[in-house]
Amino acid sequence: MRAPEECGSWEWALGGAAPPGLASGLDVAARMAAVLRGRGLLEPEQVEWFWFVYDVGDIGIRTVLPVRGRLDSADLGRRVEASRPSGYPDARVGNLSVLGRGVWIDAEGEERREEGLVVLSVDPDERELSADVAVFHDVWGYFDFRGVPHPEVHRRNAPRLAAALGELDALLGAKAEEGEMTYFGRAEGYGIALPDVIDGRGPDLTDRL
Questions:
Q1: Which of these, 5, 9, 15, 153, could form a disulfide with 134 (CB 3.0-4.6 Å)?
Q2: What is the distance in angstroms between the CA of the first residue and the CA of the last residue of the chain?
C-alpha cells in the first residue's frame, strides 16, 4: 500500500560535497538516480519541477520532462533551459523530482513493479545544494499499514533500501539525516523505525489512506 505522505525520508546537505546551482544539481541527481536504478528501486521516467522568481516566489508553472532510464545531466540541462517559461526570463528551477517505477518483492519472492516506489529530489539552490530520498510504501517496514506483520516482505525489501542509502552516503561523501516523522512512520538509520507494538500488531493507519 502507498501512503499520501512519506513513511520515511533521508536528506543530504551537500554544501561541502557539491557546488550549488542547476548544473551541479542535475549532475547529483543523475548520479544518485544511477545508484537507485542499479538497485532496482527507481527507473526514471520523468523529471518535474516548479519555476520560481526571486522576490516573487512560485509562479505556478510546473514542467515535466520525460526521460528514459539513465539520466544524462548535460542533455537534461539543455532541455531544462529550453523549457523556461517565455513570459518569465528570470525564472529559476525549483526542487527537481525524479519519478518512475521501482521493484519490490512480495512474500513469495515475486518481483512487482510499483509507481513512485522511491522518489528522489534535488534542490539546485544557488547557495547550497541538497537532496532527498523518500519512500511511501509499507513494504519497507515490519508491519503493513493495517498493522499486520509481514516479516517476509520486510526481509526481502528493507535490506535493498538500506544498501542503496549506504551507497548514496558513500557517493555523496555525506551522511544522510533522517527526515521528519509523518503519520505513516519515520526513518531510523537506513530503515523504517519500528512503531509501538500492541499484542503483536502495529498501528492501523488505513484511516488516512
A1: 9
A2: 9
Domain boundaries, the chain: 8-208
Burial 76-86 (b: 16+ CB within 10 A, else e): bbebbeeebee
Q: All 3 cell numbers of residue 190? A: 537506513
Residue type, 76: L
Taking the CB of residue 209, how many other CB atoms lie within 10 A of it?
12
> What residues have CB less than 8 Å from 142, skipping those under 6 apart?
149, 150, 151, 154, 192, 194, 202
**N residues, the chain:** 209
pLDDT > 90: what percent of the chain?
Answer: 96
pTM over 0.85: yes
pLDDT in tens, 108-128: 999 999 999 999 999 999 899
